[in-house]
Design goal:
The chain has one domain: Up-down Bundle (Growth Hormone, Chain: A), CATH 1.20.1250. Helices cover 82% and strands 0% of the residues. The protein is built from 15 helices and no strands. 57% of the residues are buried.
Length: 409
């Protein structure tokens, strides 16, 4: 289950990434709650969707170029630049909140700048991980990386609640206590910057380099010729487009369905994160196994059904359980599909292939959040989640019937 931890550089990278992810989830939780607090009740779902859209928009615009750079440059340099920029945006938001200057337009602007940093850092990170472990342990490394991200999804929201309580206990107002959450995220980037500088892996640049446009065209051409890759990318895009709204709408459910506050919101997020950790552990334990594609499709059917059930639930303990199950199912789908794409991509094309995959996977999040947020202003967040869950089941059934190479992998 923990084979990738036998590699020193992977352990170092994992520790830094986990620390940074905890800070990121503290900020995500605080930022979503702040947007919900600043907006009117009827517009909260829309602004949550818009905030998610603007953070992911640069990923749709620049990730393909980031993939070319990941194949041409030392991934660590690109990642360091990305971390510095994200640290600066978190610190800026902390200062704006503490000084009582924050508005929704400021939050949206800083989300867009953060997305620019992630659009180049993401492909570099996906290219770095396979260089830290042997190919046979790559699925395990992908799953363990998912675990660190989802451990952060548990710890981050809980740390958000603790930070708010501590800040108010020190005599700070609610908004000033919120500023501590953004400052905490800014500080977490120092750890990942240190660990990136500690890696021993060496980068070997390609002996022949074409222009960026030619290399980008070569990557797109390669993916187009691989029918199974296209199917996996489409599957990833539809999963994020339809499935991530359940996380985006959690503040709305907390306030309008359960009539609770910030502590309940962090509590719901923690259950979702705990389920994701369990799902990633299952994938790490299974490693590379026969019929991975068929397993992914069956788990996605369950994922859609869990979302429908959560949208219909009005009982807290049942909603906790369903969030746990949705988190586990989502992570099993995500980790397995990512492993299949990583294993399929050749070393010299991995940055470009993963950037195309990330464009589809990450691009589905903002487009789905924006569309779901807009629809929720008319029919409500619970109805939107029910529709999304049914559509997720439909997508999985389509691939189970038509396959396009996914069912046989």
């Amino acid at each position: 289950m923990f084979a990738a931890f036998t590699y020193r550089d992977f352990r170092v990278q994992w520790l830094g990434a986990c620390t940074s992810s905890v800070g990121t989830w503290v900020q995500i939780t605080a930022q979503n709650w702040m947007v919900t607090s600043l907006a009117t009740e009827s517009r909260a779902a829309f602004f949550l969707g818009l905030d998610s859209f603007l953070q992911q928009l640069p990923i749709m615009l620049f990730t393909l170029v980031g993939g070319v750079l990941a194949d041409r440059r030392d991934s660590r340099r690109t990642l360091l630049s990305s971390q510095y920029l994200q640290m600066a945006t978190a610190a800026a938001l902390a200062l704006l909140v503490f000084g009582d200057y924050v508005t929704i337009p400021w939050i949206l602007t800083l989300s867009f700048v953060t997305g620019i940093a992630q659009s180049f850092g993401g492909p570099a990170y996906q290219t770095l991980v396979p260089s830290l472990v042997d190919k046979k342990d790559l699925p395990n490394a992908v799953a363990l990386n998912s675990i660190q991200f989802n451990i952060a999804r548990v710890i981050g929201p809980l740390l958000f609640g603790v930070t708010i309580a501590a800040g108010t206990g020190w005599g700070l107002g609610d908004q000033q206590a919120m500023a501590l959450c953004f400052a905490l995220n800014a500080a977490s980037f120092l750890v990942v910057i240190y660990t990136l500088m500690s890696l021993r892996v060496k980068f070997s640049p390609p002996t022949q380099q074409k222009s960026i446009s030619d290399e980008l065209a070569g990557g797109i051409r390669y993916v187009r010729e691989q029918g199974t890759l296209i199917a996996l990318i489409v599957l990833a895009a539809t999963t994020t487009f339809l499935g991530f709204a359940v996380l985006t709408f959690l503040p709305v459910f907390t306030k309008t369905v359960f009539k609770e506050g910030a502590n309940t919101y962090s509590h719901l997020l923690a259950f979702s994160g705990a389920g994701s950790v369990v799902g990633a552990l299952v994938v790490a334990w299974m490693g590379k196994f026969p019929r991975m594609g068929l397993t992914v499709l069956l788990v996605q059917v369950a994922y859609g059904l869990f979302i429908v059930a959560f949208a219909m639930s009005r009982t807290m303990w049942l909603s906790d359980l369903l969030l746990f199950l949705t988190g586990a199912a989502l992570m099993m789908v995500f980790s397995t599909v990512t492993s299949l794409v990583q294993l399929t991509a050749p070393n010299e094309m991995r940055g470009r292939v993963m950037s195309i995959y990330m464009l589809a996977f990450r691009g589905g999040m903002p487009l789905g959040s924006l569309a779901s947020g807009w629809a929720a202003t008319y029919i409500g967040a619970p109805a939107v989640l029910q529709i999304n869950g049914v559509l997720l089941v439909g997508v999985a059934i389509y691939f189970l019937i038509r396959s396009h190479g996914v069912r046989e992998i």
